[in-house]
Amino acid sequence: MFSAINSRWNCSGLQQVMDVLHWDGTLSAQDFRIGAFAFAQEWESLNLGFPPWSWVLCPKHPCLASPEEGYLSLENICISRPNEEDIHQISQIDNGEEQTGCSGDENFVDNATLVQSSHHELHYCDFHIVYSSIFRVPVLYFRAYCSDGRPLLLDEIEKELPVCSSKELSESKWTFITQEEHPYLKRPWYKLHPCGTNEWMKLLFLSHTANPKFEAVPELYLLSWFSVAGQVFGLRIPSKISN
Amino acid sequence: MDAQKYLWEGAIPLQIHLHESQVTALPPPPPALILAPRIGYLPLLAPLIKPYFSSTLPPGVDTIWFDYNGLPLKWYIPTGVLFDLLCPEPERPWNITVHFRGYPGNVLIPCEGEDYVKWSFINSLKEAAYIMNGNCKNVMNMSQSDQLELWNSVLNGNLEAYQRVSSKLKLATVDEYTSLCSPKSQQSLGETDLTAQLKTGRVPVRLYLLSVREDFDDLDEVHPIDSWEKISYINRPVEIRKEDKCFSLHDALKTLLPELFSDESLTDVKLSGVDFEDAVRKPNEDVSSDKVMEDQGQNAYKQPEAGHVSSSAEIKLIRIQGIEPKLEIPFSWVANNLINPDHFLHICVYVKVAQ
């Protein structure tokens, strides 16, 4: 696998050996693009029961010479957690257990098998992974809504999140999840604030590799990043850094 | 002579009209005349505005928002920037409309009070800190009392209090670069200066590019902006490289909008012999004693050379804090003196594009 990665690397003209200890945990815009496609491919191969991520290309302003920009999109994902009334109605969820926290098993919300209950309105979420040229890291933007399309407010979304997310929300009300204009769609969206991302990404890579000198492959960045960011919504995926 | 002092004292005279849908009693109330600090934000004026209209408002919860010619105003953009951007020919007083109901939540992000503005400001400051220092720890680790003092200083327009708290944050400035322009400093440039230069290379900039398709010679011919789609927002830092002996505003704009600034206009820019002390002195002459910074930019400064790069686009106006600076001015001066309290340099650029 490594030789395959090497050859792809050389083709894209990246630096050779990256020393993780001296890396600042960030990603260049070009590496984000490379990583985005790799992430989307890996996501499909993991067979999580979710639709695939799509790459959305953004129109450029005629006066601006910026390179082509885009973002990853995953939409219409049901984030509703089954409540106690619905448990006995659900037949195919892995363990049939309610999601209570971030720790532990490999459970994730499987929208393919969630049964709609008449008592419980389902909530959906759109996720966009957008590159921040300021923080030089990916940023998770999201918006949530009911089945009839009515947008959800943060306190309604909070009810669907794992306990540790809502705890974080209550402690860092203004800095954990912020509401801002989507950089491309120009509409109000929520986002997970990116400050600190580079630090925990670096720690993530350091903690997974016995040998601190390893070739930092852009392909691994997004998957590892999402393995952490996705947990805010109770979405668990393997991080795959330790090959 | 302190440019920041003048900036903080600068204000936009507003004539605020209550939207007709909110008027419950005839005759409709007269507009409120309010002096809005340039460096402030419109929702913060709510306590000043409400008394004018409270008797005529329908019952219910008030959520303040503003529009100019029907365009909802983005409340997280500083008042002075909104004025510079949306009024190509400065309108005095600036006639805007206030609403207390019907918040356009699909267009504007929510603002339900002072806290929303405060946190938007703090998050911008964090972003600026990240750009300048590579991390936002200094802002994140501010004590509660410092944070409160900083925010209050912005609320009250108290520059001394602001400078007292913000100096603790150790946000890197680009002072080191101004010294590079004078020959005598070359010898005094020691090791510590070099390290400081290496660290302080990035200036936070928010650029608002307004593209106008129509043909116009004078700014007052431009139709009012009816959609935010016409404005491109570029949130990108400008890097001052240490090998650039004197990095001008023109150079900075060229890095942000390379298509619009030609190399030809660059040769016209003479860096030696420009007495930028004189350039700085001019706005001060026009500041009246009752603390209103009039937008006298057009008289005090020459229009920037229109950049003819691509035949399809032409720069018509570059405005920062209500003034149109000479493009030869060292960018370090601009970065140190014309920034907002959020430590961002907000730049408005008008571009005429081919139809």
Structure explained in plain terms:
The complex is a heterodimer of chains A (243) and B (355). Chain A is an alpha+beta fold. Chain A has one domain (2-15, 27-88, 101-173, 187-201, 217-242): Yope Regulator, Chain: A, CATH 3.30.1460. Chain A is built from 7 helices and 6 strands, in the order H-H-E-E-H-E-E-H-H-E-E-H-H. Chain A has helices at residues 2-12, 29-46, 84-87, 154-158, 163-171, 197-208, 218-229; strands at residues 54-57, 70-78, 123-132, 137-146, 177-181, 188-192. Chain A has a 6-stranded antiparallel β-sheet, with helices on one face. In chain A, 28% of the residues are buried. The model of chain A is unreliable at 1-17, 84-107 and 111-119 (pLDDT under 50). Chain B is α+β, with helices and mostly antiparallel strands. Chain B has 15 helices and 11 strands. The termini of chain B are far apart.
